[in-house]
Specification:
Helices cover 67% and strands 3% of the residues.
Length: 622
């Protein structure tokens, strides 16, 4: 996994946990990660550790002690200093011998990379007897450094090959005369980037430096909103970006939410060196304002038709959101804005299974912002809710109590109602069902009275999830109420959770066909947001309905597919009150019907499927 966009060492563990498929439910990330990897024979790649050296060293040491068959490859400019570490210096690509035959030059690795990149800007380019010596000399001049080769190759768009070599010779004669203490490779790479920068217009240079502050890249709207000003007019941004793409300073990436522009780590680090202190301060303020606005526009706790796109936007922007919160928390005057960002993301932290990270940003902001404003009140009940999902009841209780007190003192009815909702969840978590359900209903009525349908939907979502195992009839009623609200507002993500609650209730009520119908509708939205926790339950419940319908082979196969996901999550269906009995009955029935050997064959077949394939197969057979 790539660590270059992660700037906070305390977030390393949950980030690595997420990368290996762990979605936090009721435990901290480290125990889940250790449990997930303990018996695995696998290679874990940590790319770019130097800026998180101490955190990476600590994590690697703990992982290797807990998982004897685990191997870790860490790329870094510095040693980690962990017991057993073996250092393998990464050499540049072998360069071509200009005296070799043309065919040998063409096959050289550095030349092949140069040719591949050259073709993209100069169609039809190839190594021939006429240009082989020149290409070989270019590879030598660039010391076989891949990034340097890529930057140079893009110049063929406007520069003939012979002239390109001449420019390199001229530029390097001046540029490599600086820091002679640096290794030759670093001198060459810096000289190449200095040379690339010299080929940019003044406005392109300024934009390069400004865009380098975005660890997660940017889309055009963000670039226009945050990077314009001074030497750059807003209407120039698109053409300047195109120029930087042409020069390979920026790369393009297309996704369902649009085109994004990114920089390689070395180019980004170089660009930031050319950003003045005044520019950086001004840019930091704009970024804080921009991302504060973005999270408000993309709140997934609002019942809208674009919930799934909002989730993807937040997921894509997460590195930049981290940088924005870090920048806000770095200055007392802007700390409240950082807490507002962290608070507005509470739904993303919860549904994305990023409980540890969410609590990190919320609790850090709460320490910096003691004033009882809306940001603090929201952060208090949001942090309490995340703490409850991690079974940290003492911390949750303290947050709820403070939120209720402050809400009463400030007359904030919305915060008071949310605090009551979370109090209800706390009571249910402690086993006090009567009080918990009463508090949830009390809060829900307050939200109805204030006309806050988004808050009503959140309450119904939480209530239905907790009630369905304890009281299927009530859980079904709450799920139906939530689904009606979702249908009226076309909210696909909340609708999936409503369908799940209705499906579980139908199963508890003995209607397996209705349960199956409901489950088959939740896979699509959950797949879009990669909700592994939800998809594990989807496979599990479909196994029950398959068994109830007499399809025991399918039931065994689905149990195997679900088991793989459960194991990856560090969880078991027997730990869930609404799963334990049904899981055991389904497995027993399938095993007795098929026989142990046939059951094992089907179970192992399902366990071999990756999650995407397993979900697709389940939908095809449903």
């Amino acid at each position: 996994m790539e660590l270059s966009t992660l700037e906070e060492g305390s977030l390393l563990v949950p980030t690595v946990a997420a990368a290996v498929g762990i979605r936090e439910m009721d435990r901290q990330a480290m125990p889940l990660l250790l449990g997930r990897l303990a018996d695995k024979r696998m290679l874990l790649l940590l790319d770019g550790c130097e800026h998180l050296l101490e955190s990476c060293a600590s994590l690697v040491d703990r992982l290797l002690r807990a998982a004897p068959r685990l191997r870790i490859m860490a790329t870094s400019r510095h040693r980690l200093g962990v017991l057993g570490e073996q250092v393998l210096p990464i050499a540049s690509l072998p360069v071509a011998d200009e005296h070799a035959p043309t065919r040998s030059i063409a096959r050289n690795e550095a030349v092949r990379l140069f040719t591949d990149r050259a073709v993209t800007v100069c169609p039809g380019f190839s190594v021939t007897s006429a240009n082989a010596v020149t290409v070989a000399r270019i590879s030598q001049r660039l010391d076989g450094i891949p990034l340097a080769i890529e930057l140079a190759a893009t110049r063929l768009r406007n520069t003939p090959l012979d002239r390109l070599l001449g420019e390199l010779d001229d530029r390097f004669a001046v540029l490599t005369g600086g820091d002679r203490d640096a290794p030759p490779r670093q001198q060459t790479l810096r000289a190449t980037m200095d040379w690339s920068r010299s080929l940019c217009s003044p406005a392109e240079r300024h934009l390069w430096a400004r865009l380098a502050t975005f660890p997660g890249g940017v889309d055009l709207d963000t670039a226009e909103e945050t990077c314009a000003g001074g030497e750059i007019e807003r209407e120039e941004i698109f053409d300047l970006i195109a120029g930087l793409v042409d020069k390979s300073v920026l790369t393009t990436e297309c996704s369902r939410i649009g085109t994004r522009y990114r920089m390689l780590d070395s180019i980004r680090a170089y660009g930031r060196e050319n950003l003045t202190g005044t520019e950086e301060k001004r840019l930091r303020g704009r970024c804080c304002a921009h991302y504060r606005s973005l999270v408000e526009r993309c709140r997934i706790d609002q019942m809208t038709s674009d919930q799934l796109d909002r989730f993807h936007t937040l997921q894509t922007e997460l590195p930049n959101l981290r940088a924005a919160m870090e920048a806000c928390y770095g200055r007392p005057a802007s700390a409240p804005a950082g807490l507002e960002v962290a608070s507005a993301l509470w739904g993303f932290w919860l549904l994305g299974g990023a409980l540890t990270e969410g609590r990190h940003w919320l609790e850090r902001g709460l320490r910096l912002v003691p004033e009882p404003g809306r940001a603090r009140l929201t952060a208090l009940w949001a942090d309490a809710l995340l703490a409850l999902h991690q079974r940290d009841l003492p911390a949750a209780g303290a947050r709820i109590e403070e939120c209720q007190t402050l809400a009463e003192e400030t007359g904030d009815a919305t915060a008071a109602a949310f605090a009551t909702t979370v109090s209800g969840i706390a009571a249910l978590s402690a086993g006090d069902d009567r009080r918990g359900l009463a508090l949830l209903e009390q809060a829900r009525l307050r939200h109805w009275d204030s006309g806050d349908l988004n808050a009503v939907g959140i309450n119904l979502y939480l209530a239905s999830m907790f009630c369905v195992a304890r009281d299927p009839d009530l859980g079904a009623a709450l799920g139906e109420e939530l689904m009606a609200l979702c249908d009226a507002r076309d909210a696909p993500l909340f609708r999936a959770y409503a369908l799940f609650a209705i499906g579980i209730a139908a199963w508890k009520q003995g209607d397996w066909r209705r349960a199956e119908t409901m489950m088959l509708q939740v896979a699509a939205p959950w797949s879009v947001i990669e909700d592994r926790w939800g998809l594990a339950q989807f496979l599990e419940v479909l196994a029950w309905t398959a068994g109830a319908g007499g399809a025991q082979e399918r039931a065994a196969r689905l149990l195997g597919a679900a088991d793989r996901v459960w194991h990856e999550l560090g969880f078991s269906p027997t730990q869930l009150p609404y799963h334990a009995c049904s899981h055991q009955q389904c497995e027993t029935r399938a095993r007795e019907s098929l026989g142990s050997r046939a059951f094992g064959r089907e179970f192992r077949g399902g366990a071999r499927l990756d999650l995407t394939t397993a979900v697709a197969d389940a939908l095809d057979e449903g």
